[in-house]
Amino acid sequence: MLRSLFIQNYALIDKLDIDFENGFSVITGETGAGKSIILGAIGLLLGQRADSKAIRNGATKCVIEAVFDISTHQLQSLFEENEWEYEDECIIRRELSATGKSRAFVNDSPASLSQVKELGEHLIDVHSQHQNLLLSNEGFQLNVLDVIAHNEQLLATYRVAYNDWRQAKQELASLIENAEKNKADEDYYRFQLEQLASANLSDGEQEELEEESEVLSHAEEIKAQLYKVEQIMSADDVSALQGMKESLDTLKSLCNVYASASELSDRFESCYIELKDIVQEVADKNERIEFNPKRLDEVNERLNVIYTLQQKHRVDTISDLLAIQDDFASKLSSISSIDEAIQRMQKRVDECYAIVMNQAEMLSDNRKKAAAIVEEQMRERLVPLGIPNVQFSVDFGTYKEPTSLGLDNVKFLFSANKNSVLQNISSVASGGEIARVMLSIKAMIAKEAKLPTIIFDEIDTGVSGEIADRMATIMHEMGDAERQVISITHLPQIASKGKVHYKVFKQDNDTETISNIVRLDEEERITEIAQMLSGATLTDAALHNAKTLLGYK
Are 87 and 79 in contact (CB under 8 A)? Predict the structure, then answer.
C-alpha cells in the first residue's frame, strides 16, 4: 500500500510530502488546482516516459519518491530476479534532470523503467478518465474474465505453448523458403560438382604433374648430361672411380709402415663407396629418362584441366578445388535432406499446435464459466447504481488461429433498457453509464486481483445525487478489505464517504504559482464539502448539508 508520497520540482509543485492511510480516501480541489499533476507524478514514478518540460520552471532536477508497504504482497521473487534488496517497506524514486536524463531506483538500487513498471503493476492501479475506453478493448475484457477465473497459471502455461508453436512455425517457414531457393540453385550446384568430380582431383597431383612435365620437356638434355657425368666418373681410360680405387689400395699398403695411412685409407674408402653409389644412381636415372612426346601431351592435357578449374573458381591449388567440391556436395546433400527436415518440422508444428489448442480450450472453458459469474454480478451491481433494466452479456467468438491471449474473441454487450438489443458497451452506453460499469468491474475484480492500491480519477463523471452516493459506498466497501482506495472527485457525496480527505490547492506569489496538497481536519472538511455544495459563498444550509453528509447530528 502507498504510505507516503514526496514530490519536488514537478510542474507546479515546489515541494510536497504527504502520508496516506488504508481504506477509502478522497482528494478534492478546484479544476486546475493540480490533481492531475499529482497523478502525473505517480505515473512517472511507476515507469511512464519522462519529459524534461515537466520539471518546475527554474529547477534543475525533479524528484518523485513513494514509500509502499509490501509486507503482504509476496514480491520476494520479483526482487530476487532484479537483484534488489527486499524489505517490507519499499521505496521507489524517480529523478529527472533538466538535461533530459532520467534515473529510477528501488530501495536505492538502480532500476530500468521496464523493471519499475513491472513492479508498479503489483502496487497501484490508476484508473484515469481515458481508461474508460478500455471497456471496448478486447484485451481488457479477457483480463476481467481471466481474473475472475483465476487463470494466471493456465495463461502462463498457454503462453509458453503459444510461443513454442509460433517459433516452430517460423522455423518451418524458413526451411520452406530455403528449400525453394536451394532448389532453384540445385542444377547449378550439381553441374559444378559433376565437373569437379569428373576431374578426379587428388591433393599433391598438380605438383607431381608439373615436375613430370618439366622432366619430359627436357628429356634429351637431361639424359645427355647424366650420361656425361656417368662417363666422367666411370670411363675405362681415366675413371674417377678407378683413380680412387688405386689410391685406396696404395694407402692400404702403407698401413703396416705408416700409422696415419690407416685413417686416410678409411676416409678414402667411405668416399669411394659413396661415389660409387652416386654413379650407379646417375646411371639408373639415365636409364629411366626417356623422350616420350605422347606422355608429355597427356601430362600437359591433365594440367590444362586443373588450370582451367583453378581459373574458373579463382583458386591456386587443388586443395582449394577439393574444398569447393566438398562445399557443392554439402549443399546438394542439404537440398536432398531438406524435405526430411521440413517433414520433421511440420510434425513439430502439428504437435505444438495440438498443445496450444488444448490449452486454449481449457482457457475458453474457464472463461465461459467466469462469464456467467460476471454477467450475474454486473447486473447485481448496476441495478442499485440507477440502471434497473440493465442487460449485460459476454459474447464469445472464436479466432481461426490461436492468438497470444487464446482463441476467444470476447465482447462485453450492454443495454440500459429492457427491450433494447444488446450492443458493444462503448457504442450504446452514456458517459455516466460507462463510469458506473467501470466502477462495477473494478469492484468485482479488486478482491480477485489482490491489488493493494486503486486510484480513481473522477470515476464519478456523468453521475450525481443518489447514484454518486451509491458509487461512494462501493468505493468505501472496496477500501474496507485491507485495501487502499483513493478517489479524486468533484462530488460532495463521494467526498463525504472518505475515511481521510485531502485537498489540492494553488497558491500565487509574485513570481510563480505553486500547487500543494493538505490533509483536512474535521472542521476544514466540513467547510470544503460545503463549498463543493454551494460554491465560494458559504451558506448555513450548505454547512448543514455538509455535516449531514459527513454523518454529524
Answer: no
Largest CA distance in the chain: 159
Half-sphere exposure of residue 269, counting CA atoms within 13 Å on the CB side? Answer: 10
Q: What is the pLDDT of residues 39-62, one digit of tens each?
A: 888 888 888 887 777 888 888 899
What burial letters (b/e) apply to 478-512, b meaning 16+ CB within 10 Å?
A: bbeeebbbbbbbbbbbbbbbbebbbbbeeeeeeee
8 A C-beta contact, residue 410 and residue 136: no
C-alpha cell belonging to residue 488: 479524486
CB 279 within 8 A of CB 287: no
Cα(first)–Cα(last) distance of the chain, in Å?
Answer: 33
For the chain, which residues make up each domain, given as ranges?
1-123+452-520, 182-335
Specify the fold of 1-123+452-520: Rossmann fold (3.40.50)
pTM of the predicted model over 0.85: no
Dihedral in degrees, nearest 10, Cα atoms 51, 54, 60, 65: -90
Q: What is the pLDDT of residue 352?
A: 95
Reduced to 3 states (helix: H, G, I; strand: E, B; else coil), residue 373 is helix
